[in-house]
Amino acid sequence: MARLVAAMSGGVDSAVAAARAVEAGHDVTGVHLALSRNPRSYRSGARGCCSIEDAGDARRAADVLGIPFYVWDMSTEFADEVVDDFVAEYAAGRTPNPCLRCNEKIKFAAVLDRALALGFDGVVTGHYALLETGASGDVELHRAQDAGKDQSYVLGVLTQEQLRHSHFPLGGSVKTEVRAEAARRDLQVATKPDSHDICFVADGDNAGWLAERLGPRPGTIVDEDGTVLREHDGAYAYTIGQRRGLRLGVPADDGKPRFVLDIEPVSGTVTVGPRERLLVDVLEADRPLWCGPAPDGPLECTVQLRAHGAEHRAVVEVDGGLVRVRLHDPAEGIAPGQAVVVYVGTRVVGSATITATSRVEVGVGDGR
């Protein structure tokens, strides 16, 4: 039996994960993370997580399970490590994933550190992923059984030490089973909708939220030949691969839609062009985080480049803190700031943050 902290978000997954840990005989304490000094500034109702309603739902679930329940104030750590990082990344022309950052710095760093300091053995969460013990004795992170709910991508930031203290009871289940189990256990969250989007952007308007914090930073939207198409109020409102909301007015010569190809944050220049120019086959990345030993030599593998995105066959090479990924088949619309997560089969090898991409030259083979 282990003493575990159950991170209870107020949703059905974390409630059932806590219930399964209790049923398995563990000594479980429920904890809800207060991530904002003003919870009403975060999502409310079913649109997100981390709201006042979610805290109440988590407390009621803990009462049903008969386990102690506490609220841990992580608002300072969340603001410093997740919110401020999100703003800084967009200001630098990159496209971050705050959920990975939250898992890395809050749920499996700050929370786990506090849990271990208080004498707990680990943390249990409602993430959909599997943990297995490998031949070497290391704990391996694998994709969940339910491919549609698999969250191994956002857990690719976890180290071996963190994995050894993690418990993911839902990894072998599908979502319909989890909801049915919650209903059988009389958990009121059984039919609660899943959370979506970014929890700290209250109305879902990322561009508007960033504008309030970064202010106007005028620039231009240009074609690849440098022709100015219109002015804008901030390059942070755009992401590579974006098509909607460009409001260019003048159609392209070929009449086809144009997409954001590049963002230059210093000048505020946003470059647009045809869809085929979004294709890339080489990625460079830094800040690698390995779930176990780092790859030794070229690694034939697959990589995932966005949450719930497709897998791409690739070769990964590591040189200290730098990672180079060569895709066998080009990918579209990959932006600096995104995470590349490396897999061998279903096993997560680790992750890194994309810093640069190289485009396939249209009409010149595969660009190599």
UniProtKB/TrEMBL annotation:
Job of this protein: Catalyzes the 2-thiolation of uridine at the wobble position (U34) of tRNA, leading to the formation of s(2)U34.
tRNA-specific 2-thiouridylase MnmA-like C-terminal domain residues: 282-354
Region annotated Interaction with tRNA, chain positions: 149-151
Keywords noted in UniProt: ATP-binding, Cytoplasm, Disulfide bond, Nucleotide-binding, RNA-binding, Transferase, tRNA processing, tRNA-binding
Protein family per UniProt: Belongs to the MnmA/TRMU family.
Xref: Pfam families: tRNA_Me_trans, tRNA_Me_trans_C, tRNA_Me_trans_M
Lineage: Bacteria, Bacillati, Actinomycetota, Actinomycetes, Propionibacteriales
Molecular function GO labels: ATP binding; tRNA binding; tRNA-uridine 2-sulfurtransferase activity
Every tRNA-specific 2-thiouridylase MnmA-like central domain range: 209-273
InterPro entries registered for this protein in UniProt: MnmA-like, MnmA-like_C, MnmA-like_central, MnmA-like_central_sf, Rossmann-like_a/b/a_fold
Protein name: tRNA-specific 2-thiouridylase MnmA
Record EC number: 2.8.1.13
Residues spanning the signal sequence: none
Gene it is expressed from: mnmA
Reaction catalysed by this enzyme: S-sulfanyl-L-cysteinyl-[protein] + uridine(34) in tRNA + AH2 + ATP = 2-thiouridine(34) in tRNA + L-cysteinyl-[protein] + A + AMP + diphosphate + H(+)
HAMAP family assigned to the protein according to its UniProt record, in alphabetical order: tRNA_thiouridyl_MnmA (MF_00144)
Positions with a binding annotation for ATP: A7, M8, S9, G10, G11, V12, D13, S14, L33, G126
